[in-house]
Amino acid sequence: MSNFDAIVVGGGINGLVAGAVLGRKGKKVCIIERADRFGGMASYAVDGGPSLAHALYNLSPRALKDAGIDVDRATFTGQQIDTVSLADDGNHIVFKANGVYWNDGSQHPQSKAWCELIQRFKTYGGLLRQLAEAPPPGGHSASLSRARLAEMLRLAKVGIGLKMLGKSEMRRFLQVVLSNVYDIVLDDLPDGPVAGMLAADAIRGAATGPRSPGTVFNLIYRLGHGGTITQPTGGMTAVVDTLVDGAKAADCTLLPGTEVSRILVDLDAVTGVQTADGQTLRAPLVLSNLASPLTSQLTGPSLFDIEATRRIRNIRARGTAAKVNLRLKDASPLPGLKSEQKDARLIYAPSADYVEAAFNPAKYREMSKAPVIEALRTEQPDGSHWVSAIVQYAPSDLDGGWTQEAQDRLAQITVDTLDCALPGLREQITDTQVITPDQIATATGAPGGHWHHAEMSLDQLLTLRPANGISRYAFGPKGLFLCGAATHPGGDVMGLAGRNAALMALEVQK
Amino acid sequence: MSIFVDPKLGLIPSPFHASLAEQNRAHSWYDWAGYAAPSVLDSMEFEYFALRNQSSLFDISPMHKYRIAGPDAAQMLNRLVTRDIRKIKTGRVGYAVWCDEEGMVIDDGTLFHLGDDDWRLCCQEPMLTWLLDAAWGFDVVVKDETHDVAGLSLQGPTSFAVLEAAGLDVAHLKPFDLVKIEPDLMISRTGFTGDLGYELWCAWDKAEALWDRIWQAGTHQGLRAIGYDALNIARIEAGFLTAGVDFQPVHATERLHRGQTPFELGLGWLVDFEKGHFNGRRALLSKQHAQRSLLLRCDVEGFKPAQGALIYNGRKREVGHITSGIWSPTAKKNVALAHVRMPDAQRASRLMAEIYTLEEGKWDTRMARLTPVQGAFFAPPRARATPPART
Fold first, then answer.
1. Whole-prediction pTM value?
2. Do the chains contact at B79 and A297, CB–CB below 8 Å?
3. Which of A98, A202, A389, B120 fits as disulfide partner to A215, beta carbons 3.0 to 4.6 Å?
4. CA distance B321 to B315
5. Using a CB-CB distance cutoff of 8 angstroms, which residues of chain B are in contact with residue A266?
6. Which CATH architecture group holds A2-74+233-316+445-509?
7. Which CATH class name applies to A82-228+320-395+399-435?
8. Of B279, B281, B284, B286, which to mutate for an interface test with A (greatest number of A Cβ within 10 Å)?
9. Which segment of the chain is annotated as a signal peptide (chain B) (predicted)?
10. Tell me: the pLDDT tens digits for A201-239?
């Protein structure tokens, strides 16, 4: 039996950050991970293929800082990458930080409009980030407590930030923030690959189409940390290793390959956890990186109010993004791409209408026949070359289930789609890997294989994330906290959920 | 909860409807959970005095009944209700309340411990979806038996003799005991009158035969079928609460803060903080000493029933209202149940009820002093005697 001040169940990104934050505050922390390696969903991979997450765009410097990790490390700064929207006619479009260009280097006519739109969303993202970097408002009873004052100040800052936008811009913000990306983008742009790229970024990982309400928010969320996309040096494994180092530096005890079989509670207060191999670890604080239904099952449903269990059962988390990894025969460049585009993020989304049409089958539990794809070329440590693709829509609850035949079909559709825009790609592929949402769910415990553990929709945000009554991380018995991507502010390899939960746990413990 | 029910659907006949209709000379039916239930059969006074001096039959089939069975039944129920149900042994019945996450009472009812891992919950409000939610994560099966199990309440000092005459020996049954006396018949020594009495439970299709059997046995015991009006007087005398009248089942309220905690209803004795977590426990811990109002049992000055009267403290400040008020024919007292806000409820010496009277076209008010009392207004020892007396 070992004694700790806090135990973190689940060593994903948020679990590692939460552990490190607590460790740096002088707590004796133990981070337990079922798998043999840390990183959870971000670094999940099969047979040496690329990991689920393949680029960073939302990792929070605030979370890293509180976890004691140097933000400017090469791992994170890595290589900033452009986005290339693939066209079947080979006339691809390149999105750079300063504008949109044709394949031949000339400026795209919608470059200015795109820049303005992105800039606007980045401004909004900056405003909303202040909300993300703190627990959702509410929950203080004493009106003059320190935490309450800090919260009032924070909200005031958001309010002032909004005011500072100016009257018309503030009105516009309030107009667009709850709206759908399709309408807002097509207000400023004709439908085509530029609009398609924005639509695709707005729905990635979500069970929504561009016309679904709240998708503008998803896009703003993506741009919340500036929108710069980097391919981390050494891949996602290196990112996870850095976070693991951070946790170790904060004197956390790391227990990989250990499964928690029970969260122990006595007199309505957490006392520790029991592991599947029979160990009992004691701590008055348990942070669970797992989804809330799983957490409540580990703790025992009788310890939660009936309303709470009802709400967590109704959290919507339907994964729609599958990972398709295409193994390339060698290091030769992808056909049809210029040399400076070889590491770019490739998007296949010819128009916003295309993205919406791709969503239609998912409503009826079918996979898209013409999917939206985000692909990156990566080299694995063993020297193998891959195209790492996120393919939507591939719903977790596919009609008939994700049989081998269905997986093969998805791989086929992915190759066919990419091969249209990159003719000859097919010949370079020697092998394919398909990681379906239900596989992700089984391997990582993320409900529905959803990468935010819970849909990022307006009814599941802020004080309603993951559900009403548990938005401030505390869940059921005293000392039990949720710290996973299902909590505010959400996932995306961001780390803020874990960091917020850790700070909240410290505040409540005081 | 204002659930719209199409009036064209009409009311459902209860399993005893034929027998009741035959005796319902007043033709006075009311809607009880969708069933046609008698409020008065011929005269409320006759029915009431039959209940207190002879015996009475009242159809309780419209009550909601839920079977909860399975290895985790006790655990699931213990999380649901505020009391420790492990103390209700097999063959016993327990009164219980259950609360929402804010500690507000959802409903009260009786829990029948039928056998190992086998329980029945009997209550006023529809509770199926709540019970299904409560069952999540537990190895139990919840079954709605509302329309499968018929119930008949036989109450009054001769009720034991009636059962004896019907060939049913329940001499050994103590209050809150239950027994499966015949394959198709369960009898519990329970009731809503505070008197000696039994509740008889059988399958829906056996109901008419049961009625006939009891009716014939009651010929020499002054047995009378009664409606709700008579029962209501008896239950107020016993100090029992009616959902929707003396407290507002919180799931049925639409306005904020209409719910009440068990402590506010004087049911704090049903709350066991030591048994482990139960629904609303965390909220109740912080609310147990912060009652917003209290339910008081009051002796009312004068003889005018105080139903619906507003309550004042010192003739000026309005501090509450009477939820149930009657002239008690047996206690020979004017009695009432009242909600009085805090802290006036604890400084109760100057509470006055403003009673409205309508006498032959003339409305009037009179101020009546309220004197809070402890316990029931009428609690005869015969209700508890075992074996019970025959008359």
1. 0.92
2. no
3. A202
4. 14
5. none
6. 3-Layer(bba) Sandwich (3.50)
7. alpha beta
8. B279
9. none
10. 999 999 999 999 999 999 999 998 888 899 888 888 999
